[in-house]
Write a structure and sequence with these properties.
Elements: E1 2-8, H1 13-23, E2 32-36, E3 42-48, E4 61-62, E5 68-76, H2 79-88, H3 101-108, E6 119-127, E7 132-137, E8 146-150, E9 153-157, H4 172-181, E10 195-196, E11 201-206, E12 211-216, H5 230-247, E13 255-258, H6 263-274, E14 280-286, H7 295-309, E15 314-320, H8 326-334, H9 345-357, E16 362-364, H10 369-373, H11 377-388, H12 407-417, H13 422-430, H14 435-441, H15 455-462, H16 470-480, H17 482-496, E17 501-503, H18 509-517, H19 531-536, H20 542-545, H21 556-561, H22 565-574, H23 576-579, H24 585-597, H25 603-619
Parallel strand pairs: 13-14, 13-16, 14-15, 16-17
Antiparallel strand pairs: 1-3, 1-9, 2-3, 4-5, 5-6, 6-7, 7-11, 8-9, 8-10, 11-12
Helix pairs in contact: 5-6, 5-18, 9-17, 11-16, 12-13, 16-17, 22-24
């Protein structure tokens, strides 16, 4: 895991790359490498976090005749098999790095070399024979990459923070979408002219002509279903997960895992111990608010792991985190480099920080299981909505002040979405900022954006979905939007601030392909979710297999009425957003008043506005 940056087509490329690496130096700390062309117009930089090939895996890497130059952020999990094959074909390796297989695969097959890679990665490959730069992102979007192309000059980096200092204009269109989804959907960013590379995408820049092209090199297909029985599918899934976890246990530095009170992390932890004789340390966090705390369920999993695999092999640490600290939240928000308002970013950061403090440099997680195996409550809601759509009138009977995790809050969102047509119903469910709400708070600088419907972002993605089951289409949509835009963005930024490498076995592309081939009824039916996961691991404690999913949230509504109230109020009502016309102060003040009274819950909108205000403070400096 590392940070990469590069510039093509600029006389002072090396100087600019060095400045960009300074801004993302936190991603490495184990060494910096910079390669520059003879004329100085092309430069490639790498901020290293050493995990594999520690002694000699410095980057950028080159092939035998030094015509290919490579910088990688990520891991190639099947590098040992690939290296043996390539060495048999006569390729000479200079290091023990997993990344070096990429340049030799490219030599063998420049068009299809990405097909052979199993891993999480974002990399830049310079081909000095073809005068081209390739930018590639992994299939599901675990590792980020941002780029800007202006005529014959292209700049790229692992984080958008690397672009700071340039004359960048804010993109009001993407900010408008942010207030709907709490993140900026791929490929847009907060800046005009800077894009996020989409998952499973290869961008090619030919610097002689200035031609920029892109193509997808992989797609999930939900339309073709396997003929396996549920029992056969359970066996197949366990076998694939065993392989995925085993590959992710390869490391030359201390490795452990995250452990929540849920099913997914328990499966990963159990499989780690099953596939190795080693001992592992697992890190968990707890909350003081019982509605969000999973400490009791975590204790059940830990005790079960110790009984099954031996107490000496299971080291566990639980830390109760303080999310009342407003300054900690503000600092956390600053790390993203653009507006990002998933409030679980703070506990995720604290979890990663504690994991690194415990001496681990790599941790396995359960990310991806919800999207692939029907784990979200909203999938159940969408299934029920098909039969209960006539009950939308009940919306007006429910109180507006309940928090997002209260019974009334969850029911209200369910009945509200029944007012939407079938095609856009899910769009309304995952959006937390309606046009009406935006209209109340938008200032003169944003009102023009109201003519754009943020649902169009998801609608365009929905046009290319392959699933036939309407609820499975929602899960497929999440894999294209919410997973890379929110979940994986949050994990990457939180982990690489330490830095810590987080590996997600469920996001192995072979598991994703297998999951896509399974009938939806193997994943979700009625109120039951992740059916195949629960059945494939019957040895897990019943409480963990059949417990209610809590997620990894924070009590936003209460924090804005309590611990964060003073600081948040001052920033929202007297900050740059109001002064510069982004927000309409009377509308924002009325919304704040309504939320404080408890009559309504505007926590998503207010927190998004707060995060945007914090971003403006940094942008205007």
């Amino acid at each position: 895991m590392c940070g990469i940056a590069g510039v093509v087509g600029c006389a002072d490329a090396a100087m600019r790359v060095d400045a960009m690496l300074d801004r993302i130096a936190h991603r490495g700390r184990d060494g910096r490498g910079v390669w520059s062309s003879a004329d100085g117009s092309l430069s490639l930089g790498h901020e290293r976090m050493a995990v594999i090939g520690i002694a000699n895996g410095h980057q950028p890497l080159m092939n035998e005749d030094e015509t290919l130059i490579l910088a990688v952020n990520g891991e190639i999990y099947n590098y040992r098999e690939l290296r043996a094959e390539l060495e048999h074909k006569g390729h000479i390796f200079r290091s023990d790095s997993d990344s070096e297989v990429i340049v030799h695969l490219y030599e063998e097959d420049p068009e299809n070399f990405t097909d052979r890679l199993c891993g999480m990665f974002a990399f830049a490959l310079v081909d000095t024979v073809r005068n081209a730069l390739l930018l590639v992102r992994d299939r599901l979007g675990q590792k980020p990459l941002f780029y800007s192309c202006n005529g014959k000059e292209l700049t790229f980096a692992s984080e958008i923070t690397a672009f700071a200092g340039a004359e960048l204009k804010l993109n009001k269109h993407s900010i408008h979408h942010f207030f709907s989804y709490q993140f900026i959907p791929v490929p847009e960013t907060v800046y005009d002219g800077v894009s996020q590379l989409a998952p499973a995408t290869l961008v090619k820049f030919e610097w002689d002509s200035g031609k920029l092209s892109s193509r997808r090199y992989w797609n999930l297909d939900f339309s073709s279903k396997c003929a396996l029985s549920l029992r056969e599918a359970q066996t197949g899934l366990r076998n694939k997960l065993n392989i995925a976890v085993s590959r992710r246990l390869i490391s030359e530095v201390p490795l452990g895992g995250f452990l929540s009170g849920g099913l997914d992390s328990a499966i990963v932890a159990s499989t780690m111990l099953e596939q190795s004789d080693a001992s592992y340390k697992f890190i968990s966090i707890g909350f003081r608010d019982q509605a969000y705390d999973e400490s009791e369920d975590i204790a059940v999993t830990v005790e079960w792991l110790k009984r099954r695999y031996g107490a000496s092999r299971v080291d566990h640490e639980l830390v109760v985190v303080d999310i009342d600290d407003f300054d900690a939240m503000a600092e956390c928000a600053s790390f993203y480099g653009q507006p990002f308002a998933d409030a679980s970013m703070l506990p995720t950061l604290l979890l990663c920080r504690k994991t690194r403090e415990c001496g681990l440099k790599v941790a396995l997680s359960g990310d991806g299981a919800d999207e692939l195996f029907g784990g979200y409550e909203r999938y159940v809601a969408m299934n029920l909505a098909r039969r209960w759509h006539r009950l939308k009138w009940l919306t007006h009977l429910l109180p507006r002040g309940g928090g997002e995790r209260s019974v009334s809050g969850r029911l209200r969102r369910f009945f509200e979405m029944l007012n939407f047509p079938d095609r856009t119903r899910y769009f309304s469910l995952v959006a937390h900022g309606s046009r009406e709400v935006k209209q109340e708070i938008y200032g003169s600088g944003m009102t023009q954006q109201l003519k754009y419907d943020s649902a169009d972002i998801l609608s365009n993605l929905a046009d290319h979905l392959t699933a036939e089951n309407p609820v499975e289409r929602c899960a497929e949509l999440d894999l294209c939007s919410y997973l890379p835009g929110d979940v994986l963005t949050k994990v990457d930024i939180a982990s690489m601030r330490q830095p810590l490498e987080v590996r997600s076995p469920f996001l192995d592309h072979e598991i994703a392909e297998f999951a896509a081939s399974l009938p939806w009824k193997y994943k979700q039916s009625g109120f039951e979710r992740k059916i195949i996961l629960r059945k494939a691991f019957p040895e897990l404690p019943e409480r963990i297999r059949n417990g209610r999913k809590r997620g990894f949230g924070v009590p936003l509504a209460e924090l804005l009425r309590g611990a964060w109230k003073g600081a948040a109020s001052d920033l929202l009502l007297n900050g740059h957003g109001v002064k510069d016309g982004w927000f309409y102060r009377p509308g924002l003040a009325e919304m704040w008043k309504e939320h404080q009274s408890g009559r309504s819950d505007y926590s998503y909108t207010l927190f998004s506005a707060l995060v945007f205000e914090l971003f403006l403070q940094r942008h205007n400096c």
